[in-house]
Each structure stands twice: as C-alpha cells, then as structure tokens.
Design brief:
Layout (H helix, E strand, L loop, with lengths): L1 E6 L13 E6 L2 E5 L5 H7 L9 E3 L5 H4 L2 H10 L9 E5 L3 H12 L10 E5 L5 E5 L2 E7 L7 E7 L2 E5 L7 H6 L5 E5 L14 H11 L4 E4 L10 H6 L6 E3 L4 E4 L4
Parallel strand pairs: 3-4, 4-5, 5-6, 10-11, 11-12, 12-13
Antiparallel strand pairs: 1-2, 1-14, 2-3, 7-8, 8-9, 9-10
The chain binds zinc ion (2 copies).
Length: 255
C-alpha cells in the first residue's frame, strides 16, 4: 500500500497545509480518506489519479473533512471529457446517506445523481467492507462528534490506521495495536487541550499503548506547530515519528 497525505491541516488556516485528506493506493483501489477543502487540487498537484478514485471514506461530518467532496463530484461530472462513468463507493459512519442527501439539497440533484453510480456504505463500528484487490476497511468509534470513527485499512498482511479526529481513548489504542502506520491527528498544543482532540503528549501516550511501527502525524492547528511535537511524543513512544506534510508519501511494503 502507498499512503499519500494530501491535506495535513485544519481550519486553523495554513499557507502550506490544506484541510484533511489522504490517499491510499493498492492495485486498482484509490481510497480517499476524508475530503476537506483543498484536497481536490492537491490530488492534481501531486499528479495523482484523481479521476480514478474508487472510494471516498468520511471519518466524520465536519466541514474540514467533507467540503471538497462536492468539488470532486463536480470535477468528475463536468470537469473532464468524457465524464466519469465508473461507480464511486462512499463509505462513512451511520448518517452518511443523509449527509449526501443534504449536500444534494444544497448543491443540486447532480451531486447524488451525477451520471455515474454512487453506492453508499454506512459502516457500523466493528464492521468491515471489502474494497477489492485484497483490501478491506473497518472502523471503530472515537471520541470527537457523535458519528466520528477511525479507520483500519488492511491488505497483504499490512495495516494502516487513521484516527480521523479524536480525543484520547485507551480503547482505541487497543484496537489500533501493532498497526504498520498510525496516521494520527495532532491538533492542539498542551495549553489548548480539549477532550475531542489530541495534543502531542496525548499522541505520545496513545502511541505508547498502540505501538505502531510508524507514527505519522497530521491535522495540525497552527499553534501546535510552534511547539516541540517530536520531543513531547518521544518522551512516551520510542518508535519512528513523521510529521506529515501535504504531499508526503509512505510506502508500506508487503510480504
Ligand atoms: Zn472534526
Ligand atoms: Zn478536523
């Protein structure tokens, strides 16, 4: 599997980090995890196969994770010739069907019926879905909003876990244990800590319990970038740490 972090920022606007979005590729599968503002253009900037995306998975319904979905659907329908004909699979927590209906209320019926089929999979915590080409996706509930989930993407004996947005949760650490890559939100500095997001120290505590082979940090509000993120985490967790940038690529070798 290849992971590309497209959007490593938030609504704490940064000149170098757009809102949340990450692409996982393996075989013919192009799985976009979240689709916040700026992600559609990052796909093009990184020369990635935006037209060939097969799946979009929403971790939750905050604007910084969903707002470029309409842009992408419009691009597939009206931004290329010929327009897209292949099915798109949208995966999300319970409520995703209603989210797309409300998006269509806002943007127009083309969003729900863009001339290519859109299948919606509402994935309950603990359930898994077959992505094709030997890949599966599963999710677990995380503390952030009522619907928020974290995802586990499995293929070839390897595993990427993506937190989405979340506060500290030891149950999540147990679920994520031993992941090859833990793509982990790192929103806020200690002095701005809240229960629905992580700080570097809380990322460190989570990683110390989950023991990923590689901890990849994302979803930075700008104040946290002025702190010693790496130092705060390595006080807890001894493994490799990467601070992802928009366009960083991580190869997860198999076998
Ligand atoms: Zn959020
Ligand atoms: Zn967010």
């Amino acid at each position: 599997m290849r992971l590309t972090t497209l959007g490593t920022g938030t609504v704490s606007l940064s000149p170098s980090r757009v809102c949340a979005g990450h692409l996982v590729q393996r075989g013919a599968v192009r799985l976009l995890l979240d689709c916040g503002s700026g992600v559609a253009h990052r796909l093009v900037q990184q020369n990635l196969d935006w037209a060939g995306i097969t799946h979009v998975a929403f971790s939750h319904f905050h604007t910084d994770h969903i707002s470029d979905f309409a842009t992408l659907v419009q691009a597939w329908r009206y931004g290329q010739l010929p327009p897209r004909s292949a099915e798109l699979v949208v995966i999300g927590p319970v409520g995703t069907v209603d989210l797309l209906r409300r998006m269509a209320d806002l943007h127009g019926d083309w969003l729900r019926q863009p001339g290519f089929p859109i299948a919606v999979i509402e994935l309950a915590p603990g359930a898994t879905h077959d992505l094709g080409d030997g890949m599966t996706i599963g999710c677990t509930k995380v503390p952030h909003t009522d619907e928020s989930v974290a995802y586990s993407i499995n293929a070839g004996g390897r595993r990427i876990v993506y937190t989405g947005d979340m506060g500290y949760d030891p149950m999540f650490a147990e679920w994520a244990r031993g992941a090859d890559v833990l793509l982990c939100e790192c929103s806020l500095p200690e002095e701005l800590a809240i229960d629905s997001h992580l700080t570097p120290a809380r990322c460190g505590a989570l990683a110390a319990a989950a023991l990923p082979k590689h901890l990849v940090l994302t979803h930075f509000y700008t104040p946290v970038e002025r702190t010693d993120i790496r130092g705060a985490i390595s006080a807890h967790y001894p493994g490799p740490i990467s601070l992802a940038e928009d366009g960083s690529t991580f190869e997860i070798e198999e076998g």
